[in-house]
Amino acid sequence: MPATPAWPPQSAPRLYIDASLAEGAVVPLDGNPAHYLISVMRVKDGDAVLLFDNRTGEWAAEARDIRKRDLALHIVRQTKTLEAVPDFWLCVAPIKKGRIDLVAEKACELGVAKLQPVLTRRAVVDKLNLSRLRAHLVEAAEQCGRTALPELADMVKLPDLLKNWPVGRHLFFADERGGAPMAEMLATCKGPAAFLIGPEGGFDDEERAAIRAHTAAVAVSLGPRILRAETAAIAATAIWMAQSGDWT
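Request: output the structure for the sequence above.
Response:
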């Protein structure tokens, strides 16, 4: 007898649902999510769809009652519990639209717990579309298998970030004027952490002095080459995850 195909299949589409999910629940879908499943993924009656809710984990559901613009997803069973996310924040100065979108996407894929936009003096952008950024986080989580969405915080000014910094959380920051190798500092600075990335023009002298004077701050180097802001954010996150996060 041929083996029974695994269910749900790995090719099943995956969606974030902003509501608590449970076995036996029915999730009605319309609008863009329904269009994606019906018109893009060509889901048929009985096909599997994976759902996650940022509360309980991931669930396998069957598509039923498919019509032109809506359908119902009947939850069958849980496939993953809610993941334990490494306690790492990425604090980034706002940069141009396409590049900050890339940072949000890769931060989610790499396992960041919180994305904190930080307004600095040399930032070329002083406003962010948080709804668009959140949409990028959701899409990245759908694609990479995350069951917990990164928290997206409102943008704060750098002085306010430093003033209200939580006790016990290391604040690594990329100082283009020099710092200890990041890998070396990670070996001695354990526990909750964050990485602060400046704007394309870097921190000004007053900002740099204020950061260095903070008791939680740890100045580090990301190597001998000058990195763009988005590259520095992705590289720093990858280094921390490899040495202190859930890649170890």
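Helices lie at 31-40, 97-110, 130-144, 158-163, 182-188, 205-213, 229-243.
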